[in-house]
Design goal:
single chain; five-stranded antiparallel β-sheet; 139 residues; 37% strand; alpha+beta
């Protein structure tokens, strides 16, 4: 996995009953759903909401997802999802995640690669400067 380039943004989410499986812990694929939600919160908090990019003609499609598991979350536990942008290329953005349990223990590490595309043509397009700027800490 790629090392993040900045301090992580933390998004907190509870595990809902619908997120769990028959074994009583969070279904493995839902970790990526939580990462997706955390990325949207990160972008909103940093002044670059996903929908604003779409209105400007740029969408983002996931092209790769990876998750390594170290523990498990259970119903009603509050998770902290740390989000950082690990890499910004010409047309792609790699976001990195650490999912922590209620005691701060690491439950998973994930990485999502998104490609920026033109809303009309769906062809790859350069990463907008406002999104690229998110790898630089505010200040």
């Amino acid at each position: 996995m790629v090392a993040p380039m900045r301090e992580p943004f933390v998004h907190r989410m509870p595990v809902r009953f619908a997120d769990t499986d028959a074994q009583g812990h969070m279904y493995f694929a839902n970790y990526l759903t939580f990462c997706d939600e955390a990325l949207a919160a990160f972008m909103r908090a940093r002044g670059c909401p996903w929908q604003a990019l779409v209105e400007e003609g740029v969408d983002m499609f996931y092209v790769s997802a990876r998750c390594d598991y170290a523990g498990s979350a259970r119903f009603e536990e509050a998770l902290a999802i740390e989000v950082s942008l690990a890499r910004v290329g010409r047309t792609s953005v790699t976001s990195a995640y650490v999912v922590r349990g209620p005691g701060g223990e690491e439950l998973a590490r994930a990485e999502l690669v998104s490609v920026c595309v033109d809303v009309e043509t769906r062809a790859p397009t350069p990463v907008p400067e406002r999104l690229r700027a998110l790898v630089t800490p505010p200040g």
